[in-house]
Amino acid sequence: MTDLLIHDAIVVTMDRENRVLENGSVRVSDGTVSSVEPTDPADRDATASRVIDADGKVVMPGLVDAHRHTDFTLVQGLFSELAGDELLTEALSLYHTAESALGESFFEAGWRLACLRQLTHGVTTVNAMDFTPAIGAEAIGDAGLRGVIGPELADLLDPAPADEQIADARRFIETYHGSHGGRVTASIAPGGEAGCSRELWEGVADLRAAYPDLRLHTHLYDSAAADTMAAGSGASDPLDLLDRYDLLDERTLLTHLLHADRDDAGRIAESGAHVLHCPTVYSYFRSGGRSWFPLPSLSEFGANVVIGLDDPFWFDSWDLIQEAKHARLLSNYEYGSQQWSSYDLLEAITVDAARALGLDDRIGSLEPGKRADLIVVDVDTPRHRPFSNLPSVLVNTVTAGDVETVVVDGRVLMADRSVESMDVESVRAAATRERERLESRTGWETSLAGSTPPDESILRRVSSRALLRAARQYGRGALARWVR
């Protein structure tokens, strides 16, 4: 018995043959894609538990957000008009304020809202690095989504010592890896060369040895002082730091690389590590003399480059399709046209991202035997038709608002833009309540016209020894970097 039948769709399979079926049907049984074939007239009258007529619409794999921090979902709009350094310092210190003054309910409401937004934006899988990973794992699992999540480890910024953070990470892995029917998996997530001591890197190496199948997810080269920071752990540069602890290989996810050069790109590609690119966060605050993401060198050496949205409070966006568009525009502006083709971008938010997360045997393309993670996109509108070159339509004119149906593991989570796997009103009510508590307890003034930070900077009112230690050791810029 077919559980789900979608017929008369334009099926973008993202498979190895790059098949696009102009009029195709997708069948799902027991959460798995059983067939992807041209639509037979009999499909329109076929028996299935659920049938979707997708005439004039696109069916494609669910989107994969390759790098996300989610703890601060509820601060949308607070920081949007601040300068970059001011935003970062306020955000980091606000996190510590929220942790002590607002409690778990603040983060629970934020995670549930994040899952609702991801779902309605067609993001079926997220790779997250957060300080509240257990809350996130439960939220992702309950929403019916898929996620890879790791506790962010940073003993130079978190008051907990390195051994305690490693022990907590081990408990998280033992509790949540493979949970919720296998949809939630764990990662090992050191924050990067700036916020991790040598002791913590040693603990991370022990975790990697104990759990060799897990992805290692970290930031790298997103500060001009990256080499100096790596030297604090006895390495010549950040890649050497990972190499020394046997952490640089095909299971490694490297985020940002803003200040990496051509030589670094070659070393990364040779190692097999994957690169997680989040272009908009940097363009939002970029200053003239700053380095930029070395896409041409990474492409030259054949590194796998995929795309993520990073923190929600940077530019208040949850649209991964538009992020892919920005990736191309910004790279073309920096290096010249044709840095990425439209199909390259589709791969970067589906099958290549799944490969980076070690999930490409299960998701990322529509093929028999893979889990049925897919979305239906409405392109039968005056905004899109008539068209040719469908990949360009999907990454140039489609937005997340065109996603109307979302399926994960064969379960319909949203149909015709109506969410079925979450109580939308309760999510919104909790988010509103916790947002109001945040504003009242921190002194932020908000209105429809904007927001204003407290008269006295939050940073000066937070006495966390970790913040002070990081500020003394690395300075304000490195301290600020650690909200990401």
From TrEMBL:
InterPro entries, per the entry: Amidohydro-rel (IPR006680), Metal-dep_hydrolase_composite (IPR011059), Metal_Hydrolase (IPR032466), MTA/SAH_deaminase (IPR050287)
GO molecular function: hydrolase activity, acting on carbon-nitrogen (but not peptide) bonds
Sorted UniProt keywords: Hydrolase
Amidohydrolase-related domain residues: 58-412
A family per Pfam: Amidohydro_1
Protein name listed in UniProt: Cytosine deaminase
Organism: Halorubrum halodurans
